[in-house]
Amino acid sequence: RARRVQRRFASVKSKEAAEMLDNGLYAYLDVRTEKEWQDSGVADVPVLAMVTSHVPGPRGMAFDTQAWLEKVQRIFPDKQSKIVVGCKAGSRSKAAASVLEEAGYTELVELDDGFMGWKMSGLPVKYP
After folding, report:
1. Is residue 77 scored above 90 in pLDDT?
2. What is the reported pTM?
């Protein structure tokens, strides 16, 4: 019988995440697609990394966790990097944060209301 591992990363709303990101101590890792970045913009924060997690596959969205993790590890080699993981609405970011946590990252926060919440909160946006 598989034992479910309790996640350790926290989920926060956009306003709280913005405070964490504002001073540059935390980096924002946007896992949405390039088209989403271009269509909706990205969070205008001091430290921003963009690495798409889920891509369209033959049976819906697919997440190649190993390939994605390798890209993220090149950007954040220190597993104690402070990272806020965000997507559009909060589903992909939870999956991505879980992958990072399993890989040994310890300072993770997940953006519960996603980039939609970020924009609806009136927080700063830029277009790549």
Report:
1. yes
2. 0.93
